[in-house]
Amino acid sequence: MTDNIRMNSLKITELISSTEIQSAIDRLARQIELAYVDTDEVAVVVLLEGARRFSSDLFQRITNPKFKITHVKASSYNGTTQSSGQVAIVAPPDLAIQGKEILLVDDIYDTGHTMTALINWLNKQGAAQIKTAVLLVKNRGHEHTVPIDFHALEVEDLFVVGYGLDYQERYRELDYIGILNNDYPAD
Ligand code: 5GP
Ligand code: MG
């Protein structure tokens, strides 16, 4: 859990191992399948880039073709570790939302700005129902502004990288979740 791994001269401290991530996704896949057992079609909207890897592993486990997956680009961070509060959305032009049951998938829920922006955007286009699924919920010690229906794991309120999550487009390829050592709080 506290292994230090030297990567490109920056140390990453592992917080969540690859094995823990994969077991959590196993459980999440079963929960999601169960929740949609009576639903004919689910439009899965995956937020890029962060959720690409998570959703790929998740939907290798959920093979029912009623889950139709679309990738949408939503970015709010602009290369810093602070949220800008601005969310830019780029979706395929033929993406049909009207009357659909949506499962919105993101990598991590932090302030909720991204989810809120996406939910407003989906509602404007007439989504029938919206549920949310994230790999990680950041434990910020306050109420979520939007309900998270499904989550795999929780993390401390730290800037995490790995398993799809980046810092300035780096570290997405790691199989585990970790923190950059200079973000580690002093004891
Ligand atoms: P929110 O809008 O909830 O504040 O943040 C959600 C988005 O910000 C996520 O989709 C993710 O891209 C980015 N983000 C939030 N916290 C972290 C973090 O700890 N690490 C990384 N790499 N990205 C984060
Ligand atoms: Mg993101």
How many β strands by DSSP?
A: 10
Order of helices and strands: EEHEHEEEHEEEE
* N-to-C CA distance: 17 Å
Overall mean pLDDT: 88
Structure class: alpha/beta
Q: Please tell me what the overall shape is.
A: globular
Ligand inventory reads: guanosine-5'-monophosphate, magnesium ion
| Beta-strand content | 25-35%
Low-confidence stretches are none
The largest beta-sheet arranges its strands as 5-4-3-6-7-8
Rg over CA atoms, rounded to whole Å, is 16 Å
Helix content: 10-25%
Largest sheet: 6 strands, mixed
Tally of alpha and pi helices: 3
Description:
The structure is a single chain. The chain is α/β, with parallel strands linked by helices. The protein is 21% helix and 34% strand. It has three helices and ten strands. It has a six-stranded mixed beta sheet with strand order 5-4-3-6-7-8. A four-stranded antiparallel beta sheet has the order 1-2-10-9. Helix 1 packs across helix 2. The chain starts with a strand and ends in a 7-residue tail after the last strand. Guanosine-5'-monophosphate is lined by residues 47, 50, 76-77, 83, 106-114, 159-161, 165-167. The site of magnesium ion has 5 residues, from strand 6.
What would the keywords be for this entry?
187 residues, alpha/beta, 21% helix, binds guanosine-5'-monophosphate, binds magnesium ion
Please outline what is shown here.
This protein is α/β, with parallel strands linked by helices. The mean pLDDT is 88. It is 21% helix and 34% strand.
